[in-house]
Amino acid sequence: MIKEMRMKTTRLHDNKTTSLLDVDYNKVQKQKAKSQSIIRTIFILLVSNFLTLGLAAQSSLMNMNDCMAYAVEHSTSVGKKINALDDAKQDYNSSVASLFPSLSASVSGATNFGRSIDPETNSYTNVSTFSNSYGISGSMPLFAGLQGVNTVRAAKVARERGKHELQISRDEIAMQTMQAYIDVLYYIGTVKIAQQQLESSRQMLKGAKKLYEIGRKSAADVAEVESQEANYDYLLTEQQNNLALAEIRLREIMNFPQDQELNIDENIDIEFVTMLTPMEDVVNHALNNNDKIISSKLNTEYAKILYKRMKGNYFPSLYLYGGYNTSYFVNMENQAAYDAFLNQLRNNVGSYIQVGLSIPIFSGLSIKTSTHKARNAWRNAELDEIAVRNAVESEVTTSYQQMKGFAKQYLLGQKKVEAAQLAYDGIAAKFEKGLVTAIDLQTASTTLLQAKSDCLRSKLQYIIEYKMVEYYNGIELIRVKTRQ
Questions:
Q1: 20-60 pLDDT, tens per residue?
Q2: Distance, CA of 421 to CA of 429 (rounded, Å)
Q3: DSSP bridge partners of 350
Q4: Whose CB has fewer CB within 10 Å in the chain, the N or C terminal residue?
Q5: Is there a contact between 327 and 303 (Cβ–Cβ < 8 Å)?
Q6: What is the pLDDT of residues 57-72, one digit of tens each?
Q7: Neighbour count for residue 113 (Cβ, 10 Å)
């Protein structure tokens, strides 16, 4: 019996041990699954953040159009032109309002102590009194030599001129940004060219040292290659410094913080195609539609209107005046002796209408002098308009011709680079065989470097001139822009 009980106890103990082992194993499996789930989640988050940062870095690249739009939006000079345009709008509103009658109201009150005049009896009295009056008056110009009308016309022209001056300011900032952007691209390209030439020179130096060890090159040749390698190292440093200065200049024009990194898109798409619009058509379009031309015309018209307004000072001025008033008076010691407040206001009502004519006879020649100066200002505005037309015509023809010239230079420059590269490769191979000197190698390397630099410059200059020709032909510098 005791033996059976011990056997049962042993079985129960074994069953309990097995159950505990199962529980521990399940816990381990669950924790392992949980850990794997956490690791997968962290991995997904890291990959997601990496992709997000990559896309953000890619999307933060600013192309030339983005830089121009940013510069225009944050330009202080453009902001001043916006304020000037708002001032012109306010001047126009004010000039229109000046044609309407002016109206004013007045209220006064007084207390007299001692000797005063009683308005009821019109005699002197020595008692304390209180009086007040109310009035409203107005005036309106009937004729003033059309000065008011010409003031409105001049303000309207000034407002319209302000719109074009604002656009001119925007275009100038965009042009400056475009040039600065192209300068950055140019120095990025020259840095890459210098790096390539430096790396090639270092490889050539290694080869020259090996040839020197086996006696196929002299120490002078090795020294010449070392000098060439040092020159390219210096050139790379110089171009890197030029790139840093160009980036500073671009940030300055854009009003971009200097302590923040400006990532620009180095890829600029442009087709080297012949401008289909003839130069004469581009010139005619610019002379009829360019904001500088329109602004100069409006400036001439503005000066002409001001001259007419000054001539209006020779004519008589006719004004109409009118008014309405009433008053109240009371003896502080005997208030019952006077009518009530409302009765006095009603009984003391008075009004008037007046017409005034002012005839200028002599004003110390001020009118004549001012009119003469206004006429000279008009003539100067006409001369400025002619100068602006000539300048714009010269700008268009110059940009058109340079566009054609840089396009040809770029196409020829590509062939020049290919030829210079072949020549350099051939001389480098001969140099390794000891057939040419290090000076020949340096000459070929310098020719290749200059060819690459000239080709890059002609390409970027073509882009500028092409966009300028498009601008003069009516295509805005910034593709998406809200004009005010």
A1: 344 454 554 556 555 556 555 554 554 444 444 443 444 47
A2: 12
A3: 325
A4: N
A5: no
A6: 444 789 999 999 999 9
A7: 10
Q: What is the H or E stretch that residue 139 is in?
A: strand 129-143
Q: Are the CB atoms for 170 and 300 separated by under 8 Å?
A: no
Task: Name the percent of the chain lying above pLDDT 90.
Answer: 48
Confidence at residue 275, expressed as pLDDT on a 0 to 100 scale: 64
- Provide the token pair at 350: 């008075």
Sign of the dihedral through C-alpha 94, 98, 99, 105: positive
- 231, two tokens: 């020159």
pLDDT tens digits, one per residue of 205-245: 887 788 778 777 778 878 888 888 898 899 999 999 999 99
Question: Which 3 state secondary structure label does DSSP give 263?
Answer: coil
Tell me, what's the pLDDT at 13?
44
Q: What is the mean pLDDT of residues 69-88?
A: 95
pLDDT band at 346 (very low <50, low <70, confident <90, very high): confident
Q: Which residues, other chains included, contact 374 with Cβ-Cβ below 8 Å and sequence gap of 6+?
A: 303, 306, 307, 309, 310
What is the b/e burial string over 423-438, where b = at least 16 CB atoms within 10 angstroms of the residue's CB? Answer: bbeebbeebbeeebbb
The DSSP element (H or E) to which 222 belongs, if any, is helix 219-254
For residues 355 and 294, is the Cβ–Cβ distance under 8 A?
no
What share of the chain in percent tops pLDDT 70?
82
Contact between residue 357 and residue 144 where contact means Cβ atoms under 8 Å apart:
no
Q: Name all domains of the chain by residue range, CATH numbers in brackets.
A: 66-100+146-315+362-472 (1.20.1600.10), 104-143+321-359 (no CATH)
Rounded distance between C-alpha atoms, residue 221 and residue 341, angstroms: 118
Residue type, 470: E
Look at strands 129-143 and 317-331 and give their pairing. antiparallel
Q: Which two tokens stand for residue 280?
A: 């004469």
Angle at 416 between CA 451 and CA 63, to 5 degrees: 60
Read off the amino acid at residue 319.
Answer: Y
Residue 460 has pLDDT above 80, yes or no: yes
Q: How far apart are CA 105 and CA 134, in angstroms?
A: 8
Query: Exposed e or buried b for every residue in 226-258, given b needs 16+ CB within 10 A?
Result: eebbebbeebbeebeebbeebbeebbebbbbee
Q: Which residues are bridge partners to 338 per DSSP?
A: none
